[in-house]
């Protein structure tokens, strides 16, 4: 039958999902994960706190469960994420760093992980969520210690490239779904760093969207990234609504999924789409956006929602 990955592949794109190794024992989840998708992202288990919980401890067991699921079933992997202010262990977030010691810590982290998975992880979110909405540098131990973004972003990308020259290296963020200050800041930083030889291959747009509220400039923002001669990836797509979702909201959601899919199809540099989960049952949305959910292509009982056919319609 028809699958999301087959539809994407016919258009030269991939179709991925964020997966959680804790759910692989759920037979339906496992089956959908291995049949509908040709890419996966670790929902949590490659984040710094999970994989490098103390300075001299790396902890690969959970991450490796999804790596082996991917390798057994022929999915590629987006490594998520190397440098991010969130889900950062306190030894990093609250460390007493200098430029020199934090450079060494970033280099160790990136080199160790990317080196361990060399040739096995196709794509990385090297840095994640580094901008404020107004385009300024988001506060973090990294931006504080280095006095801005350029230096630590450069350090992280150079270390990742050196550790696996074949991996596609992305800078990833949210609210890049419209033109404006944040998207412009992304364009300006990537243009500047690329002109200095920093190996940025790709811009990731998370695309945590709201039903019925996709901006008229959604496509224009993606095109502004592709115009920098980088790949573009939609990395964490979900489209939330108030719950319980009405049937009309689910129809609007389907056309929203069609629109996002078409945007990728219509932009040659868009390499693929990743949805942030499979089923509404396990989605992160209700826990973070109170009263909202129903954001994914499968419902709580693994029925395909209109959104599923909405994606197919976009390819
Ligand atoms: C979320 C996960 O889905 C949750 O399970 C976790 O509790 C918090 O992080 N942007 C990102 C993702 O880059 O890593 C986040 O994932 C969602 C927002």
TrEMBL record:
UniProt keyword Lipid biosynthesis present: no
One cellular-component annotation, GO: extracellular region
The protein's enzyme class: hydrolase
EC number of this enzyme: 3.2.1.8
Pathway this chain belongs to: Glycan degradation; xylan degradation
Domain GH10: 1-314
Keyword Signal tagged: yes
Top-level taxon: Eukaryota
GO molecular function terms listed in the Swiss-Prot or TrEMBL record: cellulose binding; endo-1,4-beta-xylanase activity
Listed GO biological process terms: xylan catabolic process
Similarity-based family: Belongs to the glycosyl hydrolase 10 (cellulase F) family.
Record protein name field: Beta-xylanase
Lineage, broadest ranks: Eukaryota, Fungi, Fungi incertae sedis, Chytridiomycota, Chytridiomycota incertae sedis
Residues of the full protein shown: 19 to 333 of 447
């Amino acid at each position: 039958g028809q699958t999301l990955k087959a539809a994407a592949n016919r258009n030269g794109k991939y179709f991925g999902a964020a997966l959680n190794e804790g759910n692989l024992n759920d037979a339906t989840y496992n089956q959908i994960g291995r049949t509908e998708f040709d890419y996966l992202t670790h929902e949590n288990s490659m984040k710094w706190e999970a994989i490098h919980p103390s300075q001299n401890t790396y902890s690969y067991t959970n991450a490796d469960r999804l790596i082996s699921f991917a390798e057994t079933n022929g999915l590629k992997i987006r490594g998520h994420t190397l440098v991010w202010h969130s889900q950062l262990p306190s030894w990093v977030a609250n460390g007493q760093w200098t430029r020199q010691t934090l450079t060494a810590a970033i280099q160790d982290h990136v080199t160790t992980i990317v080196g361990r998975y060399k040739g096995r992880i196709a794509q990385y979110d090297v840095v994640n969520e580094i901008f404020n909405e107004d385009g300024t540098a988001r506060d973090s131990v990294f931006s504080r210690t280095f006095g801005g973004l350029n230096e630590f972003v450069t350090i992280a990308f150079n270390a990742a490239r050196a550790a696996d020259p074949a991996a596609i290296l992305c800078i990833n963020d949210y609210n890049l779904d419209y033109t404006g200050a944040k998207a412009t800041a992304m364009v300006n930083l990537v243009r500047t760093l690329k002109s200095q030889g920093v190996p940025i291959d790709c811009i990731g747009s998370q695309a945590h969207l709201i039903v019925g509220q996709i901006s008229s400039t959604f496509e224009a923002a993606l095109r502004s990234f592709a115009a920098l001669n980088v790949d573009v990836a939609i990395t964490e797509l979900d489209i939330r609504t108030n719950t319980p979702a009405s049937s009309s909201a689910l129809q609007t959601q389907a056309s929203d999924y069609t629109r996002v899919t078409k945007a990728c199809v219509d932009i040659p540099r868009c390499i693929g789409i990743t949805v942030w989960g499979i089923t509404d049952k396990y989605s992160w949305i209700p826990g973070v956006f109170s009263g909202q959910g129903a954001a994914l292509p499968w419902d709580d009982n693994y029925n395909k929602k209109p959104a599923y056919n909405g994606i197919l319609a976009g390819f």
